[in-house]
Structure formats: C-alpha cells, structure tokens
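User: Predict the structure for this protein chain, please.
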Amino acid sequence: MDERPRLTVVVPTYNEADNVRPLYERLAKALNGVNYEVLFVDDNSPDGTADVIRELAKGDKRVRLMVRVGRRGLGTAIVDGLRAARGVYAVVMDADLQHPPEVLPSMLKAAEETGADIVVASRYMKGGGTEGWSAVRRLISWGATAIARLLVPEVRRTSDPMSGLFLIRKDRVSLEGANPTGYKALLEILYRNPQAKVVDIPYVFRRRERGKSKLGLGTMVEYLWHVITVSRPVKFAVVGAIGTGVNEGVAALIMYLLGNYTAAFVGGIEVSILSNFVLNDLWTFRDRRSGRWYHRLLRYHVMVAPAGLTIFFVAEILARMFKVYALLALFIGILAGFIVNYTLSSRNVWKVLKQS
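Assistant: Here is the predicted structure, written as structure tokens:
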C-alpha cells in the first residue's frame, strides 16, 4: 500500500490549460523533499485543461484529476477536492499562479510547528501584500473583508478571511455541511470550525500571468449572499424580528382580553422566548446543538432572563412613567434586550464545542 502523502495540493481549474504545466513545475521545485500529491478539480473545461493534466499524470503518479460534469463553482470544487484529498494536510490554491507555490513549504512548516488546524496565507499582515491591484480592487477586497469580520465573528481569527490560499489538517477540520455558494471557501470552513486553531503567515498575491480573471459582479453578489446566509448575528436578528412580532401579537391579544399591560408584557415576553428558542435551535445554532433539547431550553431561559428583565422594566418605565403607548414601549424594550440576548445565548446555550 502506498504511503499516505503528507500534503495534498488541491487546485480547482476552469479553462486553465495554459497555466497547469507551469504550476506543476513550480510545485515540484517548491515541494522537493515533501511527500505530496496534487489534485486538480476541473469543471469540465472546454479548453482542454483536463487533457493537459492527464498528460502530466502519465509521467507522475502524484498527479490526480477529478473532472466534474454538470456541477460547477469554485467553492464546491474546493470542498470536493478537500474531501477527496489523501494527505494529512491539504492546501488549496488557484491554478493561475497568483498564489505562489513557493509559500507552501512555509505553510506546512507553520502547521507542524504550531499545531495549527488551519493556516491562512494572508495579504493583510506584515510581509504580505498584493501586486498590481488598482485602487478599486483594493477597496472591494477591503470592503469584503470588513463585511465578513463584522457579520461572521468566527472569521476574526485570521487577518485575511477572504484568502484563497489556505491549508487545513484533515483530521482536525470538519467539512460536514460545507457548501459555499461563492468563491470564498475559507469563510465557510472557519464558520463551521469555530474551535479550530488558526495561524496566519504572510504572502504576496501576484499578478495573473495568463488567462482571464473570473472575478465579476455575479461573484461579488454570490459572496455577499453567502456571508448573510452564514452570519449568526444576521440569523439571530431575523429570529429576533419574528420574535418581536410574536411578542407584540401576544401582548396585544392579552391587552384586548384583560386590559392589563403588565400581564401583556409578561405573556408576550414568555411566548416570544419560546418561539425564539425553537427557531435559534433549528436554524441559527443548529450546528452547535449538544445535549437534550430541554436542557438547552432551560439554559436559554436562564441566559435570556437578563434580556427579558431588560425588556420588561424598560417597557414598564416607559408605559407608566412616560405614558408611552404600551406596545411601543414593549418594542423599545425588545431593542434594548437584543444585544444581551445574543451575547449570553451564543456563549452559554449554543456554545462552541472544544476539540478533544
């Protein structure tokens, strides 16, 4: 049986026939002395990319090819390649030589010496950078990074969550459920592995030597949608908005039946707590669920008590002392309790599971 490679280099390709051989040659030089394989994941390129790879594979058993027919997209190509990788470590890089193969030994060394689960080649740390970018391209990259860091807290462990050049340790990083819709698979992996140890190393993003860039408006829209769909704060806010409607509706019903806004506040808060728990458990924090559901529900009640009290007392004070309309007072109280609710829920009810 062949010895397991230390490293698998995963290279997604689409119309990269001119770049495959130069990349292969530079990989061979950069990884001299390393037990590695290179896995090209080709989306059935019409320019003959797969044929070039097959020719290379005839003379080098370290070269593997996966051709995907009827399935396209850089993000899913990366995930499919990582799942098929046989190495202890797997590194993802582009085929267009904008990711210099010469940085791979440093990434592997960083993983082995620090025990990192994920190593990110970063453009945004000392020693890193970009080559030949316009001011507009820099602004787009900066904005995309800022959006990711704001909306997806799990990516804040790296200075460059948008990097397309990264390494994972296969047995320490889960790809379960990963299905990136855009071109930034690293963001998805960081999101799904909040317990993973992440280390950055610097690199300079190079100019494309051949072929055309695939970055366009559609790619950017896909990325933005991807960030929104994996953002826990956004999901939590959506659930909170639904809960606000539940809270206000129940409170209005109790006001109508009993004419007592203290009872309306209490009833609305409690029913919305239950509805928020169900939606957060099934959606926002689905991948963090542990233990029995009623244990999580009990913890949720305890953890949101400060938020519930905040909502109640703000609403009571506004309604009684300032004569604010009861349902408006309740709405203002809900806004005041949102941040407390999210912070305590994410840290204590659906907390990150530590790796063993």
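The first strand starts at residue 7 and ends at 13.
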